[in-house]
Design goal:
Chains A, B: Homodimer. Two copies of one chain form a homodimer. Chain A is 40% helix and 16% strand. By secondary structure, chain A is an alpha/beta fold. In chain A, a hairpin with a 5-residue loop joins strand 9 and strand 10. The radius of gyration of chain A is 19 Å and the shape is globular.
Chain lengths: 283, 283
């Protein structure tokens, strides 16, 4: 049976490091500050934002949650972003997704100052990632967290065949760039790819981010592969589960992330790690 | 035997269209203007810039070649860029590569106004490409030209397995993003990938951009594949040749680009096409 990647443990190690970095910055008079803007009353978003806030406070980060009404206009939201862009005490700024229908989300992403873009979604930061710029810049937190997990478990990256299932801007595309920059051979498959198995079976590292519960089964995985499951799905009983059929795959994989307790805990830890990095880089 | 992709013909069709668009813009009082900055006396660059200039003039584009001395400093070059960035009569601006050793080339790339970035190398344009932004923005000319060739020959892209050999910022990486946005399954291989053949043999579309003469041989290609050779190499006799062993591969490929006469003619045609697009978008 494959070993289970303990995302909670890796996240906890990152958080411990973040806490030390926060203390160091505070001694230099810098209080790392994260602003999360939330528009409307989406319950899942509110829970997620509250979890980020609590953990940020635990680590000594100044966390500001700015709640705006569901009927906020594009211009009103842009004005709020401009306010935080200009505020030198704010190092990290994000707008929680999803946004109400009247908001043009890509335009909001482009309005956030690239140097405060803690989500790493601004095209200039994405472009620095794809061109492997030798600069400091933020990167989308879920794939960046996955890189931290792979490194924590000493997964060989150079020359490995990494297959990414899903091509979202939040996970699949930046994940491909990160793995390419780490000298992996990278394949991106998606819903136009036909039989996924022909690709996934050749993967040394398989990252699955589709939102389709149990899409990846035992026969889709190469023996000994490292399997990273980004899914946060509900099974037929409403139980949280992943894009990978964990019970079927765990015996064939060399390393595998569970859901929950795998990628999930890494995302907030990486967001707070990156908040501190932005504060350092702004100095 | 596979069919040969006639890059000269596709380029000629694009140039004819560009000429019409230039005339239309001129009637509206807009003279599409391209500025190419060249630093120093690299002979290959000078020939290439002269070819661009001649073709631009043929198509009615206002082409300006700004020759700077080899000892130009970073600040002097940045000042020249700033001058053209601010000049509303200039629509397209590029700095010819290679640059002398005292110049920080990535910083020059980032200094060019993204709306005049006819090379498509600015990270914000690369990021728009990787995130498949539904906006007008320039894209690196060689891969954009390859997309035009694939479309001209009705090569099916959706669900096709595209394998790109080489991961440069000029070709491999933007090529991967373009093909992914066109719904291909995309694999990027490079010099850390070990045995390339295991990947290239599964390609429906194989794009090779390595600078290694005849790297890809008959046994590396799937029968019927479309093979795009970006190489401009010299063989042992000093003759121009490609990264693909054309004579060996042409019988197994379904479609193949020759060198010369394949990708080469497309790059200048695409640069001038994109000059006109930038002029239109600026209006």
């Amino acid at each position: 049976m494959g070993d289970i990647i303990d995302g909670k443990r890796v996240a906890s190690d990152i958080n411990a490091q973040t806490k030390i970095e926060v203390e160091t910055l505070k001694k230099r008079g810098i209080v790392p500050t994260l602003v999360v803007v939330i528009v409307g009353e989406d319950n899942a978003s509110k829970i997620y934002v509250r979890n980020k806030h609590r953990k940020a406070v635990q680590l000594g980060i100044n966390s500001v949650v700015r709640q705006l009404p569901a009927e906020t206009t594009q211009d009103e939201l842009l004005a709020v972003i401009a306010e935080y862009n200009q505020d030198p005490t704010v190092h990290a700024l994000m707008v929680q997704s999803p946004l109400p229908a009247q908001i043009d989300e890509p335009a909001i992403t482009r309005a956030i100052s690239p140097v405060k873009d803690v989500d790493g979604f601004h095209p200039i930061n994405v472009g620095k990632l794809l061109t492997n710029a030798q600069l400091n810049f933020p990167v989308s937190c879920t794939p960046k967290g996955i890189m931290s997990m792979l490194r924590a478990y000493n997964v060989p990256l150079e020359g490995a065949h990494a297959v990414i299932v899903g091509r979202s801007n939040i996970v699949g595309r930046p994940m491909a760039a990160l793995l390419l920059n780490a000298n992996a051979t990278v394949t991106i498959v998606h819903h136009h790819s036909g039989d996924l198995s022909q690709y996934t079976k050749t993967a040394d590292i398989l990252v699955v981010a589709t939102g389709i519960a149990h899409l990846i089964k035992r026969g889709d995985v190469k023996p000994g592969a490292t399997v990273i499951d980004v899914g946060m799905d509900r099974d037929e009983n409403g139980k949280l589960t992943g894009d990978v059929d964990f019970d079927g795959v765990k015996d064939v994989a060399g390393l595998i992330t569970p859901v929950p307790g795998g990628v999930g805990p890494m995302t907030i830890a990486t967001l707070l790690q990156q908040t501190v990095e932005l504060a350092k880089w702004s100095d």
